[in-house]
Amino acid sequence: MLTIESPQSLREQLYSWRRQSQSIAFVPTMGNLHQGHLRLVEVAKQQAAKVVVSIFVNPLQFAPGSDFEAYPRTLQQDVNQLQSLDVDLVFCPPVSAIYPENMNESTRVIVPGLSDILCGRFRPGHFAGVTTVVAKLFNLVQPDVAVFGEKDYQQLLIIRRMAEDLFYPVKVAGVETVREASGLAMSSRNQYLSDAERRTAAMLFSTLTNVAAQVK
Ligand code: PAF
């Protein structure tokens, strides 16, 4: 497995695979990988000859004063897991490679409307940060398929919309949420929850599932 930090080396490697007509599946992540991410990688492997995973904690999608600094970073452990899954390339750039100039004055990619409702109402700028970094990563990797979890369903729809609007020649695949035995969706941020909050969060899922069944 190749581990690459620089966009230039990434482009060179991808160029050589593309010249051999190898299709490329891409899984963007912020690292601290769990079973949910590993499932995305498995799906990616079914979709293309080569699988590229990015690990980049994107500062642009964190609100000032939120958990950017504290966000769990477990790079070596993540790389080992990806190696055991036979991933072809891990791209883990430093912030300066993705935002070489002042990040706050750099170009944004925004999907209006969809980014401003639901979760977006409470996290101003969050989805603009996501779409901006995903657009940059799509430009660097130029994947045939990109794989995202349905756990962040709004994010998945926003990225599909961005890809369609900007004519990215990529299929955006969604993968069903992987859950703990309690029903709680696996997420890197679950480690912020106390035992009581975990129980409440699991209850939300079972209640919603129940309500959906009754509505049907
Ligand atoms: O879902 C995530 O982990 C992030 O929002 C993503 C898509 C990797 C962009 O930073």
Describe the protein's architecture and organization.
The chain has helices at 7-19, 35-47, 75-84, 95-98, 119-122, 126-141, 153-165, 195-215, and strands at residues 2-4, 24-29, 50-55, 89-91, 145-149, 171-175. By secondary structure, the protein is an alpha/beta fold. The chain folds into 2 domains: 2-178, HUPs (Rossmann fold, 3-Layer(aba) Sandwich), CATH 3.40.50; 180-216. It has a 6-stranded parallel beta sheet, sandwiched between helices. Helix 2 (35-47) links the parallel strand 2 and strand 3 (50-55). Helix 6 (126-141) packs across helix 7. The model has no long low-confidence stretch (mean pLDDT 97).
Structure described in brief:
44% of the residues lie in helices and 13% in strands. With 216 residues, the chain is α/β, with parallel strands linked by helices.
Q: Helical amount among residues, as a percent range?
A: 40-55%
Which class of the largest domain in CATH terms?
Alpha Beta
What's the mean pLDDT score? 97
Total individual domains:
2
Compounds present?
pantoate
CATH topology category name of the largest domain: Rossmann fold
What's the main sheet like? 6 strands, parallel
Instruction: Report the β-strand fraction as a percent range.
Output: 5-15%
- The CATH architecture classification of the largest domain is 3-Layer(aba) Sandwich
Morphology: globular
The number of helical runs is 8
Quaternary structure: single chain
Task: Give, in spatial order, the strands making up the sheet with the most strands.
Answer: 1-4-3-2-5-6
Low-confidence spans: pLDDT under 50, at least 5 residues? none
**Strand pairing plus helix content: what structural class?**
alpha/beta
Please give the alpha-carbon distance between the first and last residues.
46 Å
Q: Provide the gyration radius in Å.
A: 18 Å
CATH superfamily of the largest domain: HUPs
- Compute the number of strand runs: 6
